[in-house]
Design brief:
By secondary structure, this protein is α+β, with helices and mostly antiparallel strands. It contains 13 helices and four strands. Helix 4 runs antiparallel to helix 6 and helix 7 runs parallel beside helix 12 (445-479).
Length: 493
């Protein structure tokens, strides 16, 4: 007879409350015969997920978003070919406080798994004692006696109906969920570090653009002042030049404050005090350019890439096992206890053959009435299982939306940047033409100021759009689950 058939027969017998009493007597024989545990409760099966065969925004996946397997999003920051970014990322992974907290939670889950594994095995303890006692002469013989004993005690709760087996399954699934939680924290961390780093470089570039514009405005002011002194123009041109200069100058402090805040956020992400990254980031650098595309793949790839989905699936497995733990409380438990030791009235007789003692007992226990508490506990466990399933399905839908949003934002921002570059080129040409005409006395100073202000606006918008393209790319990497190394990536590297 197979194990499954054995379990089914015994469980069906105990399921009938009226038949439980009849089985109390032969419980001892049952514990000896039934050497393999019957794990009650549902066996876990991974949920069947129906995913779209391709992305809704598949038309946006162009040559810049390669579907080749070579472009793995695991260590996506290496594609930016920026040594400073790579060094910051490596440090953040080692010293970030959220990573440390996730690692500590993982160690806790591992310890709980080990505890559940150990709970299935017997507990053995050793004890010894020595005592001397004098009896009362009024009630007895008034004799002084010594008593010595030493031995081992063992207790083993037989896992006949699989309560501890299910508990171990739940602990193992929780441990695996903890591993995915650590990976999810890493995905979020690397994305945040990347975005803050790119925004810091963008703010540095915007400050440089504003400073360059100030220099050009100062030259325009000198021209306006010279022409006024020569009587060619009125005070109006000089005042307009000063106003435009000061207006541009007023933008720089807010950009510098934004850069300061950005660098402080980066420092906190690295687990360092604010201000510690200023020296490293002091050297002005251009925004990095990714050297390759992104392995966008298909929606089904998210099941193995996204750690939050993998974590939700493991939480569902743990919740399913807990239903079995709760169900096992409906069935009897069997405890096997034993002792082996020595007892004597003198130390000399303690280690003789006659001093040996032993005991062996099998203790069955069955709850006959609990006012429905066990059934309620099963209902609660099943409700938690349903919650875990809903969380898993919700995580999957959120992941699909994240990728679709990131695809749309990235490709459309690239199109916007192309338009801004064309507008900037035209504005630069208009500014040069207006400056030349003003110097030749063929145009008024207002045309020069308008062209300068428009050029500054276009340059600033272009800088903002350039970093938006890159941060949208980072968000796409994050949506795809990039930022941690899968086992298959390590094997192929």
């Amino acid at each position: 007879m197979s194990k499954a058939m054995k379990c089914e027969g015994w469980i069906s017998a105990f399921a009938d409350r009226s038949s439980r009493i009849r089985f109390i007597r032969p419980m001892a024989a049952l514990a000896i015969v039934l050497t393999e545990a019957c794990a009650v409760g549902p066996d876990y099966k991974a949920p069947q997920t129906v995913l779209p065969p391709e992305w809704h925004n598949k038309a946006l996946i162009d040559v810049s978003l390669s579907q080749s397997k070579e472009a793995s999003p695991a260590l996506w920051w290496s594609s930016f070919d920026d040594s400073v970014l790579s060094s910051i990322m490596e440090k953040a992974i080692k010293t970030n406080k959220d990573i440390m907290g996730a690692e500590a939670r993982l160690r806790e889950a591992r310890a709980k798994r080990d505890f559940a594994a150990g709970d299935r095995l017997p507990t053995v303890s050793a004890a010894a004692s020595a005592s001397r006692r004098r009896g009362s002469a009024e009630t007895g013989i008034g004799k002084t006696t010594d008593f010595y004993n030493a031995g081992f005690d063992a207790r083993w709760e037989l896992d006949i109906f699989g309560a501890r087996q299910r508990a171990l399954e739940a602990a193992e699934a929780s441990l695996q969920a903890g591993e995915e939680d650590l990976r999810d924290v890493m995905v979020t961390l690397t994305a945040e570090v990347g975005i803050n780093y790119l925004e810091a470089r963008s703010l540095q570039r915007r400050i440089a653009i504003a400073s360059e514009t100030l220099s050009a405005l100062n030259q325009s002011y000198e021209i306006a002042r010279w022409r006024k002194e020569a009587g060619l123009v009125t005070q109006l041109d000089e005042d307009q030049a000063i106003a435009s200069y000061q207006q541009t100058k007023a933008q720089i402090p807010s950009l510098e404050a934004g850069l300061e805040q950005n660098l402080n956020r980066l420092a906190v992400l690295l687990g360092e005090t604010p201000g510690s990254l200023h020296a490293l980031m002091a050297k002005k650098m251009e925004l990095p350019s990714p050297a390759r595309g992104v392995a966008v793949g298909i929606p089904a790839d998210l099941l193995r890439r996204r750690p939050d989905i993998r974590r939700a699936e493991r939480n569902l497995a743990a919740a399913t096992a807990q239903v079995g733990v709760a169900t096992a409380a409906l069935y009897p438990s069997f405890s096997l206890t034993g002792s082996l030791g020595l007892e004597a009235l003198s130390t000399g007789g303690l280690f003789t053959a006659n001093a040996r003692t032993w005991a062996l007992a099998l203790s069955p226990a069955l709850t006959l009435f609990d006012a429905g508490k066990n059934r309620a506990n099963i209902d609660a466990a099943q409700a938690r299982q349903e919650q875990a399933l809903a969380s898993y399905e919700g995580a999957l839908l959120t992941a699909l939306a994240d990728v679709e949003d990131a695809l749309s934002a990235y490709v459309r921002e690239k199109r916007r940047l192309e338009a801004l570059l064309a507008a900037e080129a035209a504005t630069l040409s208009a500014y040069k033409l207006a400056s030349d005409q003003y110097s030749a006395g063929l145009a008024d100073f207002l045309a020069v100021l308008v062209a300068q202000r428009t050029l500054l606006t276009m340059q600033d918008q272009r800088a903002v759009s350039e970093v938006a393209v890159l941060t949208d790319l980072v968000r796409l990497y994050k949506a795809l689950g990039g930022g941690w190394i899968r086992a298959e990536d390590k094997e192929n590297s």
